[in-house]
């Protein structure tokens, strides 16, 4: 099959926002590289896999990430859109939380984004074309109790995104960021602190017990990408209407 559309790489495509991104861009006919550690979940997604490559990659391993991206580029051409979506949120009070959980969040949410960016950015700069969309969070510009290390990681994503945007804007490369509010994904399932989880669930009840459908975040990502290359929607803050914070 000949592809006229360019390659899209999505990290963390096995669930949540990344899986919804994959469905939307697949329906639009883009060749894709879908990454995650649980590849069986990616293979179960309702996609046309004709022009999809799937690889088991941990975004904290830059060598493995680069190998997977280069293999996809050999088949589909250079990456035109990287969605740095993979992330973890391990809620916890900083006085009690195991520092290993802070490390996991900083490694995945910050280093993972930098790792992917460094792999695709030089070629984008060289050809004066390309887009990187980073999944940050409302926790990337405001604080939430029991989110200290997560907030630190997402403030990091905001900071690095704006820095790199300034560095490459003159090369016609777009660095963009989506800052979602709470969404119905698997994000909370990895939290080990029962008290922090209870507080989160109580907060969720204040918005009727249901947070944002991840499909709207995917539509936002696609809207950003679909703008002409000379327009960069730099940042979007999107949340359920009933989310008050
Ligand atoms: P999910 O838990 O549903 O999805 C997270 C994805 O990240 C999974 O596909 C997971 O895949 C992947 N992932 C996690 N760690 C790694 C790793 N080390 N290497 C590769 N992939 C990894 O959560 P969401 O869809 O909600 O999260 C997506 C992004 O959105 C995250 O960056 C999150 O911080 C952000 N976000 C989420 C919000 C929410 O309320 N849901 C709100 C604001 C931002 P696998 O486990 O298979 O590796």
UniProtKB/TrEMBL annotation:
The keyword Oxidoreductase applies. It comes from Levilactobacillus paucivorans. The lineage of its organism: Bacteria, Bacillati, Bacillota, Bacilli, Lactobacillales. SUPFAM superfamilies: NAD(P)-binding Rossmann-fold domains. Pfam families: adh_short. Belongs to the short-chain dehydrogenases/reductases (SDR) family. Keywords: Oxidoreductase. InterPro entries: NAD(P)-bd_dom_sf (IPR036291), Sc_DH/Rdtase_CS (IPR020904), SDR_fam (IPR002347). This is Oxidoreductase. The keyword tRNA processing does not apply. One of its GO terms (molecular function) is oxidoreductase activity, acting on the CH-OH group of donors, NAD or NADP as acceptor.
């Amino acid at each position: 099959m000949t592809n006229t559309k360019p390659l899209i790489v999505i990290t963390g495509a096995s669930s949540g926002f990344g899986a919804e991104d994959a469905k939307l861009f697949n329906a639009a006919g883009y060749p894709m590289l879908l990454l995650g550690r649980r590849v069986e979940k990616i293979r179960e997604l309702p996609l046309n896999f004709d022009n999809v490559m799937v690889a088991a990659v941990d975004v904290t391993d830059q060598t493995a990430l680069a190998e997977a991206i280069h293999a996809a580029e050999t088949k589909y051409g250079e990456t035109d859109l990287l969605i740095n979506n993979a992330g973890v949120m391990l809620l916890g009070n900083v006085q009690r939380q195991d520092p290993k959980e802070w490390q996991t969040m900083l490694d995945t949410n910050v280093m993972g984004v930098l790792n992917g960016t460094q792999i695709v950015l030089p070629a984008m700069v060289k050809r004066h074309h390309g887009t990187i969309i980073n999944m940050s969070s409302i926790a990337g510009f405001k604080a939430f109790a029991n989110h200290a290390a997560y907030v630190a990681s997402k403030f990091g994503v905001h900071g690095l995104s704006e820095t790199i945007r300034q560095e490459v804007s003159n090369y016609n490369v777009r660095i963009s960021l989506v800052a979602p509010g709470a969404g119905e994904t698997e994000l909370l399932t990895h939290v080990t602190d029962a008290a922090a989880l209870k507080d989160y669930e109580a907060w969720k009840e204040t918005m009727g017990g249901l947070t944002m459908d991840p499909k709207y975040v995917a539509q936002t990502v696609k809207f950003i990408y679909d703008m002409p290359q000379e327009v960069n929607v730099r940042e979007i803050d999107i949340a359920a209407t009933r989310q008050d914070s």
